[in-house]
Amino acid sequence: MNQVLYLSNIDSLRDHIAYVPQDNFLFSDSIEHNINFGLESGTEETARMGAIFAGVDDDVRGFNKGYQTVSGERGVTLSGGQKQRISIARAYVKNAPILILDDSVSAVDTKTEETILHNITNERKGKTTLVVASRIQQFHS
Amino acid sequence: MNDDNEKLFGDKKIPFKVMMKRIGHYVIPEWKAFAFAFFLILLNVGGDILLPLIIKQFVDSIAVTKEAPIIMTSLSTILGISFGWLALSILSQTFIYFESMILQKAGQRIVYKLRMEVFTHIENMSQNQFNMMPVGSLVTRVANYTTSMSDLFTNVLVMLLRNILTIIGVYIIMFILSWQLSLILMAFVAVVFVASFIFRNIVTKLFRKERQYTSDMNTFLNENLSGMKIIQIFNQQKRKENEFNVKNKQLRNTKFKVLMAFAVYRPFITFVYFSALAVTFFVGIKLNFTPGIIVAFYNYLNRFFNPVQNIADQINQIQKAASSSERLFNLLDVPPEVLDKPNPIVMDHFEGRIEFKNVWFAYEKDEWILKDVSFVIEPRQTVAFVGATGAGKTTILSLIVRNFSIQKGQILLDGVDINDIEIHSLRKAVGQMLQDVFLFTGTIRNNITLHDDEYSDEEINKVCEYVNADKFINKLDNGLDTEVLEKGENFSQGQRQLLSFARTVLHKPQILILDEATANIDTETEKLIQDSLEKIKNIGTMLVVAHRLSTIQNADQIIVLNKGEVIEKGTHQSLLRQKGYYHKLYLLQFKND
After folding, report:
1. Which of B134, B236, B588 sits opposite A111 (nearest CB)?
2. What CATH number should be reported for the domain holding residue A136?
3. Better-predicted residue by pLDDT, B32 or B434
4. Residues 104-123 in A contacting B (C-alpha not used; CB under 8 Å)
5. pLDDT value at B33 more than 60
6. How close B533 comes to chain A (CA, Å)?
7. For the residues A12-37, what does the mean pLDDT come to?
8. How many Å lie between the alpha carbon of A64 and the closest alpha carbon of chain B?
């Protein structure tokens, strides 16, 4: 997109950017609501779409309550990697022109990491994705 | 379990009788203070009740004729009455001083004990229990609810006792002065009591709601202030505003209802009071009372209605304190999931042999994180745990120090079931270096010694040198005395790692647990860390959740986990030869290293 983003309106700037920060904060709410956080109205379907993108769908469906599983106050019943991937799903679902991943796959194993990087190349064609990476091999794709 | 959850959230109802018994448990050790205060209250109330009688004496002695209010009594009588009045007042106030000092102190001692008890209890709860409990609600319980209980001991109970005694005393004297009028006034008393009772019921419910909503709001604030970054990034301020608004409204509306109840109740009682006065004047004149008796009744009615009205307030405060106590006791009633057995085995030294025997573990019922995990680690071995995220690596490490209890199977340390080992001696022997290093506000020194003063600077410096933390500490102006900001924000993640190494090594563990950090460490620090780990692993048995190839290659044993099961065990070379899961993992993860 060849437009200049003027910083004059933070809200609209933020509307155009989806961001996965280094620390993964989840709300004590269902996984579905956590993933749909950036949407006006999300469904379990939209949440699943994000989860598939982030390679966490299998994990979530493995829980007894699936997408209705409530994460603890800071998402503590989930492992670090699961939190990270839900955080990625949350950013993906927002479907913004720009997606930023700030060292967001550090707690994810290499296989899942590859899935995510693969998904980024495939599903975000035509959109900008910035990846801040600490491991060299992330850049190979 | 459900019952315990209810307690954890503080919603379980405790019968009033049981509650009184438990509060009694705190009051009884202070019985001397309470008894003495009770005695003083008795004297104080006695004095208070006698004052109107002096007024009666005075009025009757000055106005006896209809012609003119001529003073009929001698100066000495008047002086006597005046001084009697003064002496009684002084005495009465002195009693109040001593009584409140004694009681307030006793109350503070009780609350001090209670706060300590709650904090100690929270400290002993398992990680699982913590995860279920919002931090905001815990803070409210330790800070606010104990204060609310303190009000109970220091103010409410005293006032209630004083009021009840006053009511009884005043009524007896009124009865002696005129039993007819007293009986008529009984009707008004009945109205006040019924009104108070209804009022009490309404307000109790409202107060319970108010507490609930306040706690809800604190929890909400706590979570959303921590998550503000996410809220802003996702532009969800409006939504959160709406959510907050709902809670804010709930609280406001409840407060409104409380105000309403009080606004209706108080004027109503005052109205009854004025009606009673009107009746008193009417009946007094009909029955030919002396002016002194009418004045005395006027005084007594005031002394009578005030306490009756206050009692309703105090009952409410008691209710408030009771619902606070309920939530506090609820918390105290949650049995820590991880507890010492009676007569646990105290171990001063471990060889460091660790065995998992068919261990099954789940954070939530039936969602097994570990399935039938078995392995043996010999003393002084270094073992690397390898596997995908969510495979259960971190979980295994946290089970060894009993952060959680396993559901099935056995974990043995030097052949002893860890459930039989005293938790304190167990955790003392195990040094944990976690991915997420938690630093406390304070100095670097305090963060390394954890406030244990037995370590000399020499020892601390030696340990820092050993773990390569000396390089960056020595560069700081204040060295070991450098202040650490909240959560250690003024140090890089690598530096925090090194500090946690120093902390662990200083406390001379026999078993070491390391959850290797994966990200955000610059190459220079990374080298220091690796170098440091090479040394640390000689201290004792070492278990590592490994992410670095070097750590894995140098391990005596590698345990490969997948979805909570041990799928392969062996050394780096033997596992590579097997060409199984580890081989695939290795190719994926480390082909580029």
Report:
1. B588
2. 3.40.50.300
3. B32
4. 106-112, 114
5. yes
6. 20
7. 84
8. 7
Burial (CB count within 10 angstroms: exposed 0-12, middle 13-18, buried 19+), residue B131: middle
How far, in Å, CA of B195 to CA of B584, rounded? 79
Q: Is B236 in contact with A37 (Cβ distance < 8 A)?
A: yes
The predicted structure's pLDDT at residue B480: 80
CB contact under 8 A, B234 and A94: yes
CATH number (domain holding residue B313): 1.20.1560.10
With CB atoms and an 8 Å threshold, state whether B235 touches A62: no
Rounded distance between C-alpha atoms, residue B402 and residue B130, angstroms: 14
Condensed to tens digits (0 to 9), the pLDDT of residues B367-384 reads 788 888 888 888 888 888
Non-local CB neighbours of B332 within 8 Å, separated by 6+ positions: B117, B118, B121
Return the amino acid letter for B422.
E
Contact: A79, B390; criterion CB under 8 Å: yes
**B346 inside domain:** no
Does residue A20 lie in a domain region? yes
Q: What is the arithmetic mean of pLDDT over B564-585?
A: 84
**Cβ within 8 Å, pair A103-B519:** yes
What does the pLDDT read at residue B8?
63
CATH number (domain holding residue B486): 3.40.50.300
Query: Could you tell me if B238 and B314 lie in one domain?
Result: yes
Q: Does residue B14 belong to any structural domain of this protein?
A: yes
Domain residues for the domain of B363 are: 354-590
Are B123 and B201 within one domain?
yes
**DSSP codes of every residue in B7-36:** HHHT-----HHHHHHHHHHHHGGGHHHHHH
